[in-house]
Amino acid sequence: MKSVGRAIREKLRTAFHTHGFPKGARNALGKELTRIQMGLQPRDGKWLTGVGRSVQEIRITCSKEAYRVIYVTKLAECIYVLHAFHKKSKTGIETPKEEIELAKKRYKELVQSLRGS
């Protein structure tokens, strides 16, 4: 039986590959998630209080491209990745609204599923 940590790593690896994250971005995001697991803050993070309680965004630049992971901590003593995406907009630093809306939806689903268990 796989450990929970290994299963999470496999899901993240699949998500990052599916979204076309290059190896450098995958490695940097993995290191940031490891920092968070150790109780540290990401090197370049941003609180997304509009998404939900304890939700943060990790921001990575790799080969002049921007990659983001939106995650939540302090829910059932776990870290949950809500969304990972390649930020393609060149017209601003704001996280695109559709990405925020997807993270909000997933946050609500996560909270509901944790209440039901």
Question: Could you characterize the architecture of this molecule?
Answer:
Helix content is 43%, strand content 27%. It is an alpha+beta fold. It has one domain. A 4-stranded antiparallel beta sheet has the order 1-2-3-4, sandwiched between helices. Mean pLDDT is 82; it is low at 1-5.
In helices, the fraction of residues equals 40-55%
What is the residue-mean pLDDT, rounded to a whole number? 82
How many angstroms separate the termini?
22 Å
Tell how many strands the DSSP assignment holds.
4
Pattern of helices and strands? HHEEEEH
Strand content: 25-35%
- Tally of individual helices: 3
What is the approximate shape?
Answer: globular
SS content category: alpha+beta
Tell me about the biggest sheet?
4 strands, antiparallel
Domain module count: 1
Spatial strand sequence of the major β-sheet: 1-2-3-4
Q: C-alpha Rg, in Å?
A: 14 Å
The low-pLDDT segments are: 1-5
Topology:
Blueprint lengths: L3 H15 L4 H15 L7 E3 L7 E8 L2 E11 L2 E10 L9 H20 L1
Antiparallel strand pairs: 1-2, 2-3, 3-4
Overview features:
43% helix, 3 helices, alpha+beta, disordered N terminus, single chain, 117 residues, 4-stranded antiparallel sheet
Short structural summary:
The chain is of the alpha+beta class and about 120 residues long. Helix content is about 45%, strand content about 25%.
